[in-house]
Amino acid sequence: MERFKEQVAIITGSGQGIGKGIARRLAREGAYVIIAEYNPESANAVAQEIEFEGGRSLAYPIDISDVAAVRQMVVNVVTRFGHIDILVNNAGIVQTKPMMDLSREDWDRIIGVNQRGAFFCLQAVASQMVKQVPEALRKAAETPADIMNLKLEQTIDQESSDLQTSYGKIINLSSVAGRRGRPLATHYAASKSAIISITQSAALALAPYRINVNAICPGIVPTPMWQQIDEERGELFGAKPGEAANAFVNIVPLKRAATAEDIAGAVAFFCSDDADYITGQALNVDGGFEMN
Asked: Is 290 part of a structural domain of the chain?
């Protein structure tokens, strides 16, 4: 399968868990994947694994909460490859802690990575994607509408292939926690709810350039992050290892946790031509855990 042949994809937080699964999936389908990961050892390990499987990848250690570093990453990737076609905003951290016990440091750490980091990564990559849009379409997108006369003077034909093509795909990883409040992870839920809002705002801002922006809301996925949640909830409630995670799985209608491949499949769909007419959406991939 070569749906993404010659495309360059940045996947943040792809040194383990869901991000790693996404990176491997896009690489298998032909993309050159940038492993944008905080841990250099994890980044290199995933890049080597992808190369061993016959894919193409580049390890890029980075802290995405550092806005300057994110902008420099985009410059470096474009300098090397000439373009960026896909961004998967996956990097994130979690903490289980009662709302009334949260400190400013707790709040700033979660928001810094999950919300601020994701937004400025999106902004930096979107700026590059706009530069890659054909000049005629870019000019049309930047022509203000005549609201009084309900007209938009465009420099391209409405039947032009420019209007039928996507010039970039951005997928943000939110969470089912972003669908409603979580008293034991208020800051995490707030950050993931914000990702859905950012997705919608970005979809509107970038639609004139035919750049698609969507979100995925995973449910329970056995990853190091879920192991952390299980451990932290166990400490709060005196539960044994695995009990907290199993309690969540038991209320999933499909009666199983997701795999990284389940999430990667949904991401690959949003990255593909089949999703060219989909933007501003947040898709739950959770076995029915949340239905909205």
From this structure: no
